[in-house]
Design brief:
heterodimer; A: 200 residues; alpha+beta; OB fold (Dihydrolipoamide Acetyltransferase, E2P); six-stranded antiparallel beta sheet; 6 helices; 8 strands; B: 186 residues; mainly alpha; Arc Repressor Mutant, subunit A; 2 domains; 8 helices; 70% helix; 0% strand; disordered C terminus; transmembrane helix (chain A); transmembrane (chain A); membrane (chain A)
Chain lengths: 200, 186
């Protein structure tokens, strides 16, 4: 394959990682530890409905034990399989799947303020084809908007709590992603309004 | 459990280093961080399935996780993109994994252009060959194809890249564009 050396060399010249410094040993250790402690939990792209499940039960998030790892946006447990169940009434966080506990870190106003670029309060006007339309009543952060549409993922239809028509919600987002794990939920959810008032 | 941990701890530094590079070549730093964690998590969960040659396997996982992340970003982008007057997220979140953002700018414009003209798979095979330095058998593991197929595809991809470079060079000459030809490396 010597004939291809020139081509390979030329490609290597354009390697974007050529000047990437190696990871610091501390970082490597930390990452390794984090991963091993996050057994059976996984990050979901945008489980809006599941996010609301995390909040359901009102005090659920407040009771959440701080997880060993801080997560910028969202971590939810795996979708309940046939043996798993999602218990919405229990006061402790019991969004369970395969026996693992939800690993959301307790939400804080500082964190909310730090990571969100858009936050508002709105009332659900309609839900059509999994698209939730909220009429904005207050914008805490970000450009003014009168209506917001959120696509409610059909992947999580097994979640009992979804955006309900006529109900008011506090929603925070960063770069177009809804923040879950205690940062988005019904306005009357325990402590959520206080969190928003403190953050913005 | 302890032996599991020990094995993972032994494996992790090399995987982290390699996958970090793999991702830095293919996506923006924030996505790279996320996908690296996700990849490691899969490695940890499926530790027992990791073959002796663990790097190609880990690249394969990273490749899938990255594709998932990109799909997720596109979905999330749709999700709130209809927000009235909300600033759109940076454009790279809706672009395909092919685009490398925030990496050092590659100056070889001819090459960049030629790579863009290849299919996604062909371009990826060439990157795995040149950047990750993998032989066809290991490229096969990453791509989930047979070694024989990888060998053939790599051969063809090289040829296609040469053809694209040559075609663009000729076009450049004909159109009198001095830039592409001048920047061509011999």
């Amino acid at each position: 394959m010597n004939d291809d050396d020139d081509l390979r060399e030329r490609l290597r010249h354009a390697d974007p990682a050529a000047s990437l410094p190696p990871a610091a040993p501390d970082q490597v250790r930390q990452l390794t530890e984090e991963v091993m402690s996050r057994n059976h939990t996984r990050r979901w792209a945008l489980p809006v409905a599941a996010a609301l499940v995390l909040l359901a039960g009102g005090t659920a998030w407040a009771m959440t034990r701080p997880a060993p790892v801080e997560v910028p946006t969202a971590i939810a447990t795996e979708r309940p399989d046939s043996t798993g169940r999602t218990d919405l009434t229990d006061k402790t966080v019991t969004l369970t799947a395969n026996g693992a506990a939800a690993k959301c870190i307790e939400p804080t106003a500082d964190r909310l303020s730090e990571i969100s670029d858009f936050a508002f309060e709105g009332t659900v006007g309609k839900v059509e084809n999994d698209v939730v339309t909220l009429d904005v009543t207050k914008v805490f952060r970000g450009d003014p908007a009168t209506t917001v549409q959120v696509e409610q993922s059909a992947d999580h239809s097994e979640a009992n709590e979804k955006f309900a028509v006529g109900k008011s919600y506090l929603v925070a987002a960063a770069e177009g992603r809804v923040l879950i794990c205690g940062y988005t939920g019904p306005t009357d959810g325990f402590g959520l309004r206080d969190l928003y008032e403190a953050a913005f | 459990m302890d032996t599991r941990r020990t094995r993972f701890e032994r494996l992790a530094p090399e995987v982290i280093d390699a996958v970090r590079r793999y991702l830095a070549r293919r996506t923006d730093p924030a996505t790279a961080d996320d996908v690296l964690s996700e990849t490691l998590l899969v490695c940890w969960r499926r530790l027992d399935e990791i073959p002796e040659e663990h790097l190609p396997w880990a690249y394969g996982v990273a490749r899938n996780c990255l594709a998932n992340a990109e799909r997720g970003y596109r979905r999330q982008f749709r999700l709130l993109s209809r927000l009235a007057r909300l600033d759109p997220p940076p454009s790279q979140t809706v672009d395909g994994p092919e685009q490398t953002v925030d990496g050092p700018e590659t100056e070889d414009d001819d090459l960049t252009q030629a790579m863009k003209e290849l299919t996604v798979k062909d371009a990826e095979i060439l990157r795995l060959w040149a950047w990750e330095d993998l032989p066809p058998a290991q490229i096969a593991t990453v791509m989930g194809i047979t070694a024989n197929a990888a060998s053939i595809r790599l051969h063809r991809a090289k040829q296609k890249l040469r053809d694209a470079l040559e075609k663009n060079r000729k076009n450049g000459d004909r159109a009198g564009h001095e830039q592409p030809t001048e920047r061509r490396r011999s």
